[in-house]
Every structure is written in C-alpha cells, then in structure tokens.
Design goal:
By secondary structure, this protein is of the alpha/beta class. The chain has seven helices and seven strands. Strand 2 and strand 3 form a beta hairpin. Helix 6 crosses helix 7. It holds the Pfam family ExbD.
Length: 267
C-alpha cells in the first residue's frame, strides 16, 4: 500500500503577516498618559542682589501632603473637591481688581498704568541713554548701564503699545496690572502622588486660562485659547492675522499673568 503524503504548510509569508500584525498593534494601541496643561518654564535668572521678601498677600500657597489632601492658604481641600481650587485662584486674582481704596489687605494690589505714565518713563530712559552715549569717557560700567537702559526702553515701549491697544478695545484710560510679586506657590512632599500634583497644576492653569478667555472675549470677541491655538498652528507663517493675535495674547497675558512657583518636594 502506498504511503500517504502529508501536505506541507507554506510558511514563507508568515514573517510578512507577523510584521503586518506588529504594525497594526503599534498603530491602534493607545497608552495612558498624564494630562495637564503645557507651560513654559521660566529661565533661571542669576543676580548678585538678594531680592526683598515677598509679602504674604502676594502669595497663594498650595501644599499637597502624602495623603493627597490639599491646603490652599488656610483652607483644607479634600482630593474629591479639587475643582473648588479653580474659584479660589480666580478670587486671588480678581478680588482687588478695579479697587484703589477699600482693598482686601490679604490679597495682591493692582497698579493702574496710563499712556502718560508709560510715555514719561519711556522718554526718561531715552534721555538717560542719550546722556550715557554722549559721555566723553566710557568704561565697562558705562556699557553695562547702556545695556540696562536699552532693555528698559524696550520694556516701556512694550507697555505703551499694550496701553494703546487696551485703550483702543476697552475705551478705558487705565490698564490694571496685578502686583509683579503676585504668584501661586505649589509645595509637595516626596511621597505626594504625581497625579494629584498634576491635577493641582491643571486647576491653577485652568483658572487663569478661563480668566484670560473671559477678558479676551470681552476685548476682542474671541478667546485667548482660540488665538493661542492659532498662533501655535501657524507659528512658521508671518501674516497680519498672526501678528495681530500675538499682540492680543501678549496683552491678555499681561493682564492675567501665570506665575507658578514649584518648590522642591519636602521629605
């Protein structure tokens, strides 16, 4: 009786199939990741001058302990109530906005810039620059003073441009600016859960973003988020609309700056 021939399986294409499956899983698989707002980290500034201590009214201190309980100034916030942090941050920013008298003493004060103030400061710096450049003898110290004066001229010119823009769209002659020292201070411990830390960061960012959106909507008829997204998507272009949006977002960020200081975790 003839032997039965067992047919062989052609495995020549198995490698191709395995490769296609690998590509499929790489494309379709999603990985969990922490979600939070993107922020620009400020550069470290070296200075030989020790700055004066910041007044308590200009600090909104948030501490997250190892049990993820949050202390926001004198209030205790449970992890499930973290969304209440949003309104607290807004309160910190806005409680004294528009007030020159009867201000809440435990919160940042506002300064009110005018076109005349910025123009005067700009002219003073330009006069100082002229005097420095006209000196018969100059040294390294003079060059340093000229550099500082040029930086001051640039700063006051930016302020004046923003003041003109603010007046154009708001009709107001004074531009409110929160105290330069005002900031949110975030402290944690080495065993603080990272997700809780990111959640607090996001609540702070969300509060400031909502304030910016409201102000931008009031002034320009569109939100800061919309303009900022457009800038990011078209950053390689140079169009009138892009330049306009950059000026508008810079003004909004001046009115509602995000100064978040993150302290090294405690043990």
């Amino acid at each position: 009786m003839a032997k039965r021939v067992v047919p062989e399986i052609n495995a020549g294409s198995m490698a191709d199939i395995a490769f296609l499956l690998l590509i499929f899983f790489l494309v379709t698989t999603t990985m969990d990741k922490d979600t939070a707002y993107l922020r620009k980290i400020p550069k470290k500034v070296e200075s030989e001058i020790t700055p004066p201590p910041v007044e308590e009214k200009n600090i909104y201190k948030i501490v997250i302990n190892s049990k993820q309980v949050i202390q926001a100034r004198d209030s205790i916030i449970k992890p499930e109530d973290i969304s209440t942090l949003n309104s607290r941050i807004k309160h910190f920013y806005t409680i004294n906005r528009g007030k020159k008298a009867d201000r809440e003493l435990n919160y940042p004060y506002y300064a009110y810039g005018t076109k005349e103030l910025y123009s005067t400061n700009l002219q003073n710096q330009q006069n100082r620059l002229d005097a420095l450049e006209n000196q018969e003898q100059t040294d390294g110290n003079t060059e340093k003073l000229i550099e500082q004066t040029l930086a001051a001229i640039e700063k006051w010119q930016e302020k004046l441009d923003m003041m003109n823009l603010y007046t154009e769209f708001s009709g107001k002659k004074e531009m409110p600016e929160i105290a330069f020292e005002a900031h949110v201070r975030l402290e944690s411990f080495v065993d603080t859960d990272y997700s809780a830390y990111v959640a607090v960061q996001s609540e702070v960012q969300r509060a400031v973003t909502e304030l910016r959106d409201e102000e931008a909507e009031s002034l320009f008829g569109t939100t800061w988020t919309t303009m900022n997204r457009y800038i990011i998507q078209n950053e390689l272009e140079d169009t009138p609309e892009l330049r306009q949006y950059k000026k508008h977002t810079e003004l909004i960020e001046t009115l509602y700056p995000l100064r978040l200081i993150e302290v090294k975790p405690k043990r």
